[in-house]
Design goal:
single chain; 238 residues; alpha+beta; Nuclear Transport Factor 2, Chain: A; Glutaredoxin; five-stranded mixed sheet; 8 helices
């Protein structure tokens, strides 16, 4: 009888837990649909934010904060003044970036450090002056133990010459040589193949990239703009 009673109690607790979970997910699902409809964006998740009454909504264009009835929609950063003005929004974005980058590793063009200590991912444009400056310093980054991984972000969009060049680059048999040539201002042979350049670009938009180079650190922190080798090393050391 004791065993039966224990099983009954366990079943009741499980049912109550499931019911509570379902009741919590239901308004989230409704809010997700409302925000997606209002903004015309794909929503990946909805969860309570650090501010009572506001929900954190992750979309394909980054984070929005939304009231429980989806009437009010806020875009911007939330800072915690009791935690040294910690940027809560950026922390959430960092977690998302780390998670999503894992799916793109196979399509990155990588310049590995022989004695790797750190690994960065750079959204790059072959026509960008500071991107070329970063690339010219590749031996120094690698010597400091920094592995550099590239994703494509042709700033001018799909009608730009850089978009076409970067698709040819990702379709090249020797991608690193093609990257070196384009970053040096030379041209490369036109080629086409199934490639993920459009997905790289959309990923950059989702990550909040607005210019190049945009550097993503291992913890998902985004560092916009060019960083000299020693400057970047200090940022990586924290």
């Amino acid at each position: 009888m004791k065993v039966l009673k224990k099983l009954v109690i366990t079943g009741i607790v499980a049912a109550l837990s499931f019911g509570a979970m379902a009741s919590e997910q239901q308004p989230h699902a409704q809010l997700k649909a409302q925000v997606s409809d209002k903004l015309g964006l794909e929503v990946s998740h909805v969860k309570a934010s650090a501010i009572d009454g506001l929900f954190e909504v992750m979309t394909e264009r980054g984070i929005f904060y939304v009231s429980s009835d989806a009437r009010y929609i806020v875009r911007g950063n939330i800072y915690d003044s009791q935690e040294g003005l910690t940027n809560i929004t950026e922390l959430a974005m960092g977690e998302m970036r780390v998670e999503k980058l894992a799916d793109f590793e196979a399509s990155m063009i990588t310049y590995p450090a022989k004695n790797e200590k750190y690994k960065i991912t750079v959204f790059t444009d072959v026509d960008c002056g500071y991107c070329r400056k970063l690339h010219a310093n590749m031996p120094q980054y690698n010597e400091l133990g920094i592995t550099v991984r590239y994703l494509a972000f042709p700033r001018g969009g799909e009608r730009s010459k850089a978009w076409s060049d970067m698709q040819s680059l990702w379709c090249s048999k020797d991608q690193r040589k093609a990257m070196d040539d384009l970053k040096a201002g030379s041209s490369i042979a036109k080629s086409s193949c199934p490639n993920r350049v459009p997905e790289h670009y959309n990923l950059g938009i989702e990550f909040g990239v607005t210019g190049t180079p945009a550097i993503i650190l291992d913890d998902g922190t985004m560092v916009p703009g060019y960083q000299a080798p020693e400057q970047l090393l200090n940022a990586l050391k924290g």
